[in-house]
Design a protein that fits this description.
Rossmann fold, alpha/beta, about 40% helix
C-alpha cells in the first residue's frame, strides 16, 4: 500500500476501473491525486469575432473538474482519500513529471 499515488487521467478514463485499482493501492492514511492535463488552446475566431484562449481553457478545465470531482466522491465512498487538479500544459509527460516532483513526490504513478 502507498501513501501517495499520482493518477494521470484522460477524458476516456473509466472511473469504475480507477476506483477498483486505487482501492487496492492507497494506504488507509494515504491519498490518491487525480491529475488531468489539458492542452493550451489557440485563440479561436471568425472574421471580426474572436474568443480569447483563456475562457476556452477555463471552460475545458471546469468540465474536467466536474468529472474528476465525481470520481473523488466515488473514491471517498470506497474509503480512499483523494484530491484532483487540472493543469494546462503543452507536454503531458513533462507535466506529469514536474507535478510529481513538486508535490512531495508520490510513492506510485498509475494509469488505470
Amino acid at each position: 500500500m502507498y501513501k501517495k499515488v499520482l493518477v494521470p487521467m484522460s477524458d476516456t478514463d473509466n472511473s469504475p476501473s480507477a476506483v477498483k485499482a486505487l482501492s487496492g493501492l492507497v494506504a488507509d492514511d494515504g491519498e490518491a491525486v487525480l491529475l488531468h492535463i489539458i492542452p493550451p488552446v489557440n485563440t479561436k475566431g471568425h472574421r471580426d469575432f474572436a474568443v480569447p484562449r483563456t475562457p476556452v481553457e477555463e471552460d475545458n478545465r471546469s468540465r474536467a473538474l466536474i468529472v474528476l470531482n465525481r470520481l473523488v466522491d466515488e473514491l471517498k465512498e470506497a474509503s480512499v482519500s483523494a484530491t484532483c487538479t487540472v493543469v494546462v500544459s503543452n507536454s503531458v509527460p513533462g507535466c506529469i513529471v514536474n507535478y510529481a516532483g513538486t508535490r512531495r513526490g508520490p510513492d506510485r504513478h498509475v494509469h488505470p
